[in-house]
Structure formats: C-alpha cells, structure tokens
Write a structure and sequence with these properties.
This protein has 145 residues and is α+β, with helices and mostly antiparallel strands. 30% of the residues lie in helices and 26% in strands. Coenzyme A binds next to strand 4, helix 4 and helix 5.
Length: 145
C-alpha cells in the first residue's frame, strides 16, 4: 500500500481525522469552523507537527501523532519534544503505521534541534515504543482539575 505521510491539513476534517482521534480518547463535538480555527492557530504557533498517514484509496486518515516542541532554559536554552495523540485506525494496526508516525516525529524533533523526545503511555503500549527506540525512564504523575 502506498500510504501518504504528510502534515495535517484543514480538509482532513472530512477524512475522518477526528473520528480517528476518537479511537484514542474523548474528542467531543468539534464543528468544522472550530476545527479550522484551531488548526490555523496551531499553524501560527509553529512549534508542533501533527503528522497524518492517509490511505489514498479510501482518502481517509488512518494514523496520526503529534510532536510539540518545548523551549527550555536548561541545556543551553535547548528544546524537548513531547509526543502526543498517537493512534492508528483499528483496521490498519500491525502494518508498521504507528512506527512510521513515530519515525516521522523523531525526525522532526531532531531537525528542530531537540535533545530528547518524551511521552507517556499505557503499560500495554510500552513494547511498541521500545521498538521505536524509546526506553522507560522515571515515573508518570498527573493532577486533574
Ligand atoms: C499503539 C499503536 C499506535 C501501535 O500502532 P501499530 O501501527 O499497530 O504498530 P506497528 O505496526 O507500527 O508496530 C511496530 C512494532 O511494535 C509492535 N507493537 C505494536 N503495538 C504493540 C503492543 N501494544 N504491544 C506489543 N508490541 C506492539 C508490533 O508488533 C511491531 O513489532 P515489529 O516491528 O517487531 O513487527 C496502535 O495499536 C494504536 O493506535 N492503539 C490505540 C491507541 C493508543 O493506545 N495509542 C498510544 C497512545 S500512548
């Protein structure tokens, strides 16, 4: 299959992007106008890459992931990339698409000069990330409001 790997476009609203994210977590009601504004605001900020994999036959987004760049004072005012919202359509899992998403985001982070890439994941996904070159480090904490 000749998958297309590219950055998110506003028209991906019609290619099942939000439905795909819905396989990861609660998306809520996001109408086209709200989606387009959020997409435009993110583009303006310019400190992230939302990568998508598109099935050209169905013209549907089948995988996605985001890398967000955080500028820091430490490490000589270096930067860190946070990987978020990685999901592959349940019908297309096990086809190395998740790996392609992560490889794309790692490449982006390296080009941006990040000294590390970090993420949180469920125990059940740890092996997947290990296969993508990550290793376990420290403990995840959360405080919900
Ligand atoms: C986790 C997820 C992104 C993996 O995507 P995928 O496209 O199925 O994974 P890939 O085909 O690229 O797998 C790459 C390698 O990791 C392995 N792998 C993938 N998921 C795994 C898992 N849950 N447990 C163990 N190994 C796993 C594959 O067997 C493959 O191994 P190989 O290279 O030796 O053949 C996908 O299962 C998914 O979307 N899950 C639901 C959403 C989710 O949990 N996202 C992560 C949020 S942190």
């Amino acid at each position: 299959m000749d998958w297309h790997v590219r950055t998110l476009e506003a028209t991906d609203y019609d290619r099942g992007f939000l439905e795909l994210l819905g396989q990861l977590t609660v998306v809520g009601d996001v109408d086209r106008e709200t989606f387009e504004k959020q997409h435009m605001d993110m583009e303006k900020e310019g400190n992230r890459r939302v990568v998508v994999v598109v099935d050209p036959q169905r013209d549907q987004v089948v995988a996605t992931g985001t890398a967000l760049i955080e500028k820091k004072f430490i490490r000589g005012c270096g930067c860190v990339a946070h990987v978020e919202d990685v999901v592959v359509d349940h019908r297309e899992r096990g086809k190395q698409l998740g790996k392609r998403v992560i490889e794309d985001l790692l490449q982006y982070a390296q080009k941006k000069g990040c000294y590390k890439v970090i993420l949180d994941c469920a125990e059940t996904n740890a092996t997947f990330y290990e296969k993508c070159g990550f290793r376990r480090k420290e403990v995840q904490m959360v405080h919900y409001f």
